[in-house]
């Protein structure tokens, strides 16, 4: 069985992040890492295999992104994935969801997958739409936002937690699965895993390797356009209410009322 885990390389939220002049996210000039939510996807792919001891299951980590995006694949290999695929091509820069899902789907078709595992959202664009688009493109059922995954043979059952209820959903492989941050803590790569990852196979594909025309991707064919961005203003200091003459309570109530908290 082949499992493909989609792992996105995102700007590090704790470092400086910025936009390019055309309002696309700068992914080259900033520090990046494997999207934290995709660590859960890698973890669930590994657990899926561990629970099916003795079966021949290969896990491929796939990313679409610039040169540095290969780091996301490397982290997945260190965690335990068997091989990596990095799709990199200048024409992909600025791609929207539709183009991104096209490239991912073509790469998945090339590798072959019985199970595609994604995170619940990326930590940068947070669209939460790529898994659904992949399912449509690959002609597979989508079983999304899973917190618990069980499988036997070609049957997969997931639990999806909603605000007031939990759904149990069943599907037959091949499927596209996305997992939430409630699915279980992702493991840290061990020293052994880090060393082993250096020898694991890692393929690099261009658009032409996947049979994708460069005119189908990129900013110029995006279905929507980012027209403007504004940096969030720095936090201002809070207001301190002092109570030197017994008027503190009134001042506090006045402040809360002025903000419509009471
Ligand atoms: C007009 C427009 C312009 C844009 N320009 C840019 C741009 O210049 N540069 C840019 O990077 N983004 C750009 N984006 C955003 C880009 O389309 C999204 O980052 C991308 O489609 C993935 O969407 P998402 O991050 O919201 O994924 P989600 O739908 O939130 O992701 C869900 C899951 O899908 C998988 N996944 C998503 N993307 C990837 C990936 N690349 N590789 C592997 N797995 C993945 C992961 O498992 C992830 O957890 C643009 C969007 C629009 C609408």
Give your account of this protein's structure:
The chain is α/β, with parallel strands linked by helices. Helix content is 27%, strand content 23%. It contains seven helices and twelve strands. A hairpin with a 2-residue loop joins strand 8 and strand 9 (155-161). Helix 2 crosses helix 5 (191-197) and helix 3 crosses helix 4 (130-138). The longest helix is centred in the first third of the chain and has 16 residues, at 36-51. The model has no long low-confidence stretch (mean pLDDT 94). Bound molecules: flavin-adenine dinucleotide (FAD). The site of flavin-adenine dinucleotide has 38 residues, from helix 1, strand 4, helix 3, strand 6 and helix 4. Keywords: Electron transport, Transport. Heterodimer of an alpha and a beta subunit. It holds the Pfam family ETF. Belongs to the ETF beta-subunit/FixA family.
How many beta-strand runs?
12
Query: Strand content of the residues, in percent?
Result: 15-25%
Number of helices: 7
Q: What distance lies between the first and last C-alpha atoms, to the nearest angstrom?
A: 58 Å
| Radius of gyration using CA atoms only | 22 Å
Structural class: alpha/beta
Helix content: 25-40%
Mean pLDDT: 94
Low-confidence stretches: none
Strand order of the largest sheet: 7-11-6-1-4-5-12
List cofactors, ions and other ligands. flavin-adenine dinucleotide
Largest sheet: 7 strands, parallel
H-E string: EEEHEHEHEHEEEEEHEHH
Shape: globular
């Amino acid at each position: 069985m082949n499992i493909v885990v989609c792992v996105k390389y995102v700007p590090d939220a704790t470092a400086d992040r910025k936009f390019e002049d055309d309002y696309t996210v700068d992914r080259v000039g900033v520090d990046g890492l494997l999207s934290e939510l995709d660590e859960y996807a890698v973890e669930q792919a590994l657990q899926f295999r561990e629970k099916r001891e003795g079966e021949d299951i290969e896990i491929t980590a796939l990313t679409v992104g610039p040169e540095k995006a290969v780091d996301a694949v490397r982290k997945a290999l260190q965690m335990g994935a068997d091989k990596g695929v990095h799709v990199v091509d200048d024409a992909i820069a600025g791609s929207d969801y539709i183009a991104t899902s096209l490239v991912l789907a073509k790469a998945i078709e090339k590798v072959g997958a019985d199970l595609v595992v994604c995170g619940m959202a990326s930590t940068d664009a947070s669209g939460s739409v790529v898994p659904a688009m992949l399912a449509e493109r690959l002609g597979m059922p989508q079983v999304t936002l899973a917190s618990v995954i069980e499988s036997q043979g070609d049957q997969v059952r997931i639990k999806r937690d909603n605000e007031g209820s939990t759904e149990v959903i069943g599907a037959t492989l091949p499927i596209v699965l996305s997992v939430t941050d409630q699915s279980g803590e992702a493991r840290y790569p061990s020293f052994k895993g880090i060393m082993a990852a250096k020898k694991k196979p890692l393929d690099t594909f261009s658009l032409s390797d996947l049979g994708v025309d460069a005119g189908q991707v990129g900013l110029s064919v995006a279905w929507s356009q980012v027209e403007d961005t504004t940096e969030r203003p720095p936090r201002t200091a809070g207001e301190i209410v002092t109570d030197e003459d017994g008027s503190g309570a009134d001042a506090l109530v006045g402040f809360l009322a002025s903000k419509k908290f009471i």
